[in-house]
Structures are given as structure tokens and as C-alpha cells.
């Protein structure tokens, strides 16, 4: 199985703003009081378009779908939370914590991929768990090592253990379960998504091990990565505040790979960390300041990887 893909689904925002429903447990979101909603959305669109251009320039196949004004979906720019696409033709649909995020799931997006020649064999739908207030937010909550059939999950209000185990059974992944925390007003609070604090690439992994407060769990996670031959590159919690953990490796022209991140993430990496990453892959970064501040998510969250095969 491939760990990285050259095809990415991205949703262009039409009414992007800070989502009040997600702010309750996403401590990375910030209120931008001095900006009108239209200004915030226009800035987000500019950042989105520049990011897509950078990906396309290096040969990544970006499928862009415009969001719709109705229903109101301020976080639609983060599609990886509601859908994941798998090499065997499976598509998974996930239960979302925020009620207004559930409206992001649009059947016509799957139809569009089929029109573009991608084969969808089967839809695995976990969304009924929302009725029981059980959530698992896609590849935000789950970081997949597709090659080694492992799925990493930091439990949180948006990642429920039993449903995660069910996902692992359905998709034949070995679960690696732990808890990850960040300091908010001197308190340790659960990190809302696993992909904020770790990224698994083909030959390396970037992770903030300091977020895993339980020493046994921390060792277990690091041992899993190392046993699969990944070079582990450690981040600090301070770097996570600039979305340094929110990265994704993709493939471009001539089989070349890139580790994609925001400009703010790139800027807080040390020379040593950059050198370690660049032994494995090239870095591609783009400014996402407005999206990060209002959305509380970054480059990784904006990209839903498409592993479906072309018919």
C-alpha cells in the first residue's frame, strides 16, 4: 500500500470564519475582532488559491470543489475530517463533533470524483454515531501509516476509542491508542486532533512526544514508529502552537515527494529539524495565517488524500 498520494481533494471556502461550535475544544482558534467576515473569507480564499497553485506547480493533482453558501459551513475548508479515500475503493464517512460541520458531507463531491474516473467501490458510513454523541473526525483524529497498517489516535472529545477500534477492524489497521495534551491557561487539556501533533511520512515521522504525558504511552508510540524504520523527528509544544505538527507528505512530478506545511510551521522549525526532514523529502510551505487563526487548522487539515484508483 502507498503511504503518499499525488491526488488531493480541497474545498474552496465561500463563507469561512471562526466556527463558534468548534472553538469549545479547539484551543488553536483565535477571534479576529477587527476583521469583517467578508474580509476574513477573502483572505482565506487568497491563501487557499496560493496554496493550491504551489501544489499544482510541483505536479500534485489538486481536485478543487467550491463550497456552497447554503448550508452554512464555516469549516468546509477542512474536508479530511468528514471523508477518507482508500486504495481498495472504500470511502469512509465520519461522525463530526460540531453540528454545523456535519453539513459539509456532500454526496455530489463523491459523484465528482467518480466523474473524474476514480473508482468508488464501497462507502463505509460511521455517521450514525452522531446520534449517540460519539465522534471520530477522519484523518484529523486518525493518523494512518498505510504501509505498515497502523492507525494512530489521540483520544479526545472528537476521537472515541470504541469507534476508532471499529474503524481499525473494518480497514485492517492495528490501533495505536494514546492521549495527547496541550497546556491551556496552565491546565493540561486534550489536543483535539491527532494530526495537530504528529505526521507519519514514508520514511520518517514528525511528532511532539512531549504532548503524551503518560510515559508508557509515549514510549509505546515512539517504539511503534521506530520499529517500522521511521526516523523520528521531535517537535516542541511551542512549535505546535504554530501548527508545526500539521503536515502531510504528498507526491508531485517525477515521483518527487514533498512535506507540505504552512509558512508559520516552516518558520518555527529549527535548522536541525529542517535538515533531518530534507534528508527524506523536500519542504513545501505556504502562508495560511488567516485560515490557521480562525479555523484552528492548517495545511494538513485542508487536504483530503485521494488513494482511489482510476478506472
UniProtKB/TrEMBL annotation:
Gene3D superfamilies: L-arginine/glycine Amidinotransferase, Chain A. NCBIfam families: citrull_CtlX. This is Arginine deiminase-related protein. It comes from Flavobacterium rhizophilum.
Amino acid at each position: 500500500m502507498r503511504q503518499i498520494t499525488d491526488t488531493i481533494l480541497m474545498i474552496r471556502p465561500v463563507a469561512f470564519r471562526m466556527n463558534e461550535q468548534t472553538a469549545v475544544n479547539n484551543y488553536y482558534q483565535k477571534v479576529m475582532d477587527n476583521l469583517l467576515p467578508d474580509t476574513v473569507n477573502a483572505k482565506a480564499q487568497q491563501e487557499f488559491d496560493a496554496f493550491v497553485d504551489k501544489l499544482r506547480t510541483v505536479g500534485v493533482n489538486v481536485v478543487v470543489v467550491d463550497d456552497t453558501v447554503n448550508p452554512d459551513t464555516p469549516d468546509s475548508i477542512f474536508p479530511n475530517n468528514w471523508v477518507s479515500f482508500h486504495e481498495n475503493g472504500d470511502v469512509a464517512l465520519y461522525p463530526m463533533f460540531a453540528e454545523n460541520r456535519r453539513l459539509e458531507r456532500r454526496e455530489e463531491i463523491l459523484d465528482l470524483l467518480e466523474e473524474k474516473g476514480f473508482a468508488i467501490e464501497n462507502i463505509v458510513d460511521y455517521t450514525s454515531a452522531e446520534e449517540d454523541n460519539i465522534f471520530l473526525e477522519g484523518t484529523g483524529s486518525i493518523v494512518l501509516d498505510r504501509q505498515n497498517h497502523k492507525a494512530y489516535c489521540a483520544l479526545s472529545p472528537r476521537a472515541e476509542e470504541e469507534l476508532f477500534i471499529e474503524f481499525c477492524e473494518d480497514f485492517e489497521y492495528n490501533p495505536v491508542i494514546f492521549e495527547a495534551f496541550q497546556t491551556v491557561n496552565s491546565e493540561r487539556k486534550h489536543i483535539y486532533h491527532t494530526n495537530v501533533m504528529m505526521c507519519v511520512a514514508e520514511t520518517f515521522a514528525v511528532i511532539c512526544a512531549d504532548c503524551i504525558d503518560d510515559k508508557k504511552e509515549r514510549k509505546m508510540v515512539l517504539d511503534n514508529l521506530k520499529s517500522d524504520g521511521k526516523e523520528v523527528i521531535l517537535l516542541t509544544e511551542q512549535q505546535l502552537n504554530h501548527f508545526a505538527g500539521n503536515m502531510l507528505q504528498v507526491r508531485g512530478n517525477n515521483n518527487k515527494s514533498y512535506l507540505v506545511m504552512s509558512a508559520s510551521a516552516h518558520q518555527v522549525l529549527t535548522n536541525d529539524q529542517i535538515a533531518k526532514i530534507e534528508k527524506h523529502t523536500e519542504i513545501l510551505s505556504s502562508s495560511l495565517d488567516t485560515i490557521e487563526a480562525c479555523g484552528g487548522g492548517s495545511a494538513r487539515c485542508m487536504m483530503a488524500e485521494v488513494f482511489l484508483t482510476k478506472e
